[in-house]
Amino acid sequence: MRRVPSDKHAPSPGATPETMSLDPEQRVIPSWTEPTVAAATRPIGGPLGEHAAVGRHWFWSPLRVGLLLGVVALTLGWFGKAACIQQYVGENGQAELDWRSGRPYVAMCYSDVVPLYSAEQLDRGGTFPYATSWVENEGTDREQVRYMEYPVLTGLFQWVNAKLTHAWTDVAASGWLPGALPVAVYFNLTAFFLAAAWLVTIWAVARSARRRPWDAALVAISPLAVVHAFTNFDTLATAFAACALLAWARRKPVAAGVLLGLGAAAKLYPLFFLGPLLVLCLRAGRLRTWTTTALTAAGTWLAVNLPFMLFLREGWSEFFRLNTERGMDPDSLYNVVSYFTGWVGFDGPLAPGETPTWLNTVSGALFLVCCAGVAYLALTAPVRPRVAQLCFLVVAAFLLTNKVWSPQYSLWLVPLAVLAIPRWRLLLAWMVIDALVWAPRMFYYLGIDNKGLPEGWFLGTVVVRDLAVIALCVLVVREIYRPSRDLVRTAGDDDPLGGVLDGARDVVVVRSPSR
């Protein structure tokens, strides 16, 4: 029989709940507990042996292995997008970006990074996000004045990369650096920093998992990372969000608040974590700690946004205006319902400046209902739920009820799912399903006239993706009400991400009538 690590091994002197994840004797070994991992290890000698010297290698640790796997996956992801930065010589004898014959969709290499370089006026010198405007659809009834459409940190990230691109091409023109189309240089520079952000996400998950550092390998090898790490700029937000949860786990509420505020300045979703933390702190009587984190997060977000709110208000508000006026996304459940039922009650086609009031109301109300359900779950569960479980449920609820589910948004769920439900086979199945939605999406955009797919085929895969996410949510709820089935708790932890909540006694508990 194999030796299974147990709690009888005493931690090293001075160890804390935050550093005990580094104790090799406390680790959960996936090749012993996960059939999928055990099968995957056969080509390299099989599962870890009974007398293996765990934790004694001078270099290789679970974290470093996870980072290496992440580098490999991100490299594959870059090659998957590289077809969209190829060039050809045009009729004028100049090199041009080769997007002929629907290349982004046929090669499935589409990335928002490439078209946004020119669409957001980043290819021009002397521009600045939220100050520079342009006219879209000029001379038509859909004419609009546009500004940078992203939150402040993401907009500044794009602008800095554009400045680096201009500097690179200037030096390349003198022969000191390899040259390429400016948009290709811009994409590669952006991809480098996005990859670094995803590696930070892997690092934070490995440090947060305590007894299960190997679970970070799931984040590293995620098919969603391979397909979508460079589709947009979302790995910036995942890095801030994962590091914020790590800071909370290490009982640093101010640092957690700063990171949540920065994450919200890149993408709004990290602020959703404050909801689960609120109800958990209410149950444990730790509202002072939550208040510190919430006020710090709000102050950080305001500090980043305030200069733009005061001096570039029209450009700064573009992100909020577009999200208010935007109709239902092709990937949303509302579009699925509209297509398969023929119902056009979600406001239908919109003219420029029109707001889908009914759609916004329904979407917002459904999300609030889900949040109320998560709060009820947190207060009625027999054992206080873990932070990762509730954060996963809230973010999943937002994606399922929101009118927009851009494909790269699924990256938000990856670190949360790994920390909430460390079941390798189930998570890999969901990630594969979610990543595969990219193929029919691309061929749907290609168009039937260009031998693409009908919309119904694409929406069928969206339904399967949504059902997979719902199934994960059901599993999380089941494990919350039956903590004996929670793999994290059965390994000996209460809540690795809990911080001040870890091991705390309950103060406020609502008993459901059924109990």
Q: Would you mind describing this structure in some detail?
A:
This protein is mainly α and 515 residues long. The protein is 56% helix and 2% strand. The protein has one domain (59-501). α7 (182-208) packs parallel to α10, α16 packs across α22 (455-481) and α17 packs antiparallel against α18 (387-401). Mean pLDDT is 88; it is low at 1-22.
Top keywords for this entry?
mainly alpha; two-stranded antiparallel ribbon; 4 strands; disordered N terminus
Order of helices and strands: HHHEEHHEEHHHHHHHHHHHHHHHHHH
- Tell me how many strands there are: 4
Radius of gyration: 24 Å
Q: Rough shape?
A: globular
Largest sheet: 2 strands, antiparallel
Lateral strand order in the biggest sheet:
1-2
Integer average pLDDT: 88
Pairing-aware structural class of the strands and helices? mainly alpha
Number of domains: 1
* Low-pLDDT residue spans: 1-22
Helix tally?
23
Helix content: 55-70%
Distance between the termini: 41 Å
The portion of residues forming beta strands comes to under 5%
Main location: membrane
Protein name: Glycosyltransferase family 87 protein
Biased composition (Basic and acidic residues): 1-10
Transmembrane segments: 65-89, 185-206, 218-248, 254-282, 294-312, 358-381, 426-445, 457-477
